[in-house]
Amino acid sequence: MRISQRQQLDTVLKYLHKNQASVDKLRTQIGTQRRILRPDDEPQGTQQAINLRSSLNAVQCSLRNLDVSEGWMDATASSIGDLTSLLTKARLEGQRGASETLSYEIRQTITAEIDEYFQQAVNVGNSQHLGRQIFAGYRVDQQPFVADLVTHTVTYQGDAGQIQHELEPGVRTTVNVVGSNPVFDATFDALRSLHDALVAGDTAAIRNSIDLIDDGIDLCLQEQSNMGARLKAASTIRTRMENFEVDLKGLLSNVEDIDLPEAVLNLNTYEQSYEAMLNAAARVMPQTLFDYLR
């Protein structure tokens, strides 16, 4: 059967349209650097990408939770470190004040220093992180410690709530220290005892107060150690999560992203093919009377 010129032209035009569609798709893929532009491009790859993105979102959510948890624990550990520093300075002042030969004026100066340390310790107890009280338990919107700076007594207004965060699925840890923790009672009692002993000029009581300060320092260091262990555990989880995030991004890239050099090569091939088909189409186009006369 003889193939008409019209059939030849239709065939050429069909392949021209098909080739142009391939060129357009490759150009879009190169521009977006994505191999899968629509779900029907590759249904299996699309499903793999959806699953990988779901896992990646879960990992990134865990990392954001870790940011919050580590921030809270860092703030807590730092504040307890401030208490340790205050007690250490109070101890040095107490040793000075225990001297039998110390003048009344110098002892008064030391007493004023201890009074200042007491106020600073109360302020540390009322520390905040991101606008929330660190040591108030669940009552994060309420100032936990109220002090009477005349009698040097402190009232705790928080509760015993242990704030727990999930560091990763199935792993939870306590990120706070409540104000009823012995750390605070020991700190306030030691500073109050030293202040009263200095006011009385009782060197034996001053030495006893130094022993109380040592106990307070030990408690602070122990609590810092506990929080440090929790932070280390969180850091280990973070490292594992970050590595998992990198792996998932790599897998997702393998599914979704194009091989750029290969895509550019294919585009050049299609463009050359398109030019060849245009030339072929020109040869089978119906001749006009002008073409014959020329």
| N/C terminus separation | 32 Å
Estimated radius of gyration: 38 Å
Overall pLDDT level: 84
The percent range for helix content is: over 70%
Question: Tell me about the biggest sheet?
Answer: 2 strands, antiparallel
Beta-strand fraction estimate: 5-15%
Regarding CATH, which class of the domain at 69-235? Mainly Alpha
Number of strands: 6
- The appropriate CATH architecture of the domain at 69-235 is Up-down Bundle
Helix/strand order, N-terminal first = HHHEEEEEEHHHH
Overall structural class, as computed from helix and strand content, comes to mainly alpha
Model regions low in confidence, pLDDT < 50 over at least 5 residues: 288-294
CATH homology superfamily name of the domain at 69-235: f41 fragment of flagellin, N-terminal domain
State the strand order across the main sheet. Answer: 1-2
CATH topology of the domain at 69-235: f41 fragment of flagellin, N-terminal domain
Number of helices: 7
Give the overall form.
rod-shaped
Explained architecture:
This protein has a two-stranded antiparallel ribbon. Helix 1 runs antiparallel to helix 6 (260-284), helix 2 packs antiparallel against helix 5 (203-256) and helix 4 runs antiparallel to helix 5 (203-256). It has a domain at 69-235: Up-down Bundle (f41 fragment of flagellin, N-terminal domain). With 294 residues, the chain is mostly helical. The chain is rod-shaped, with a radius of gyration of 38 Å. It has 7 helices and 6 strands, in the order H-H-H-E-E-E-E-E-E-H-H-H-H.
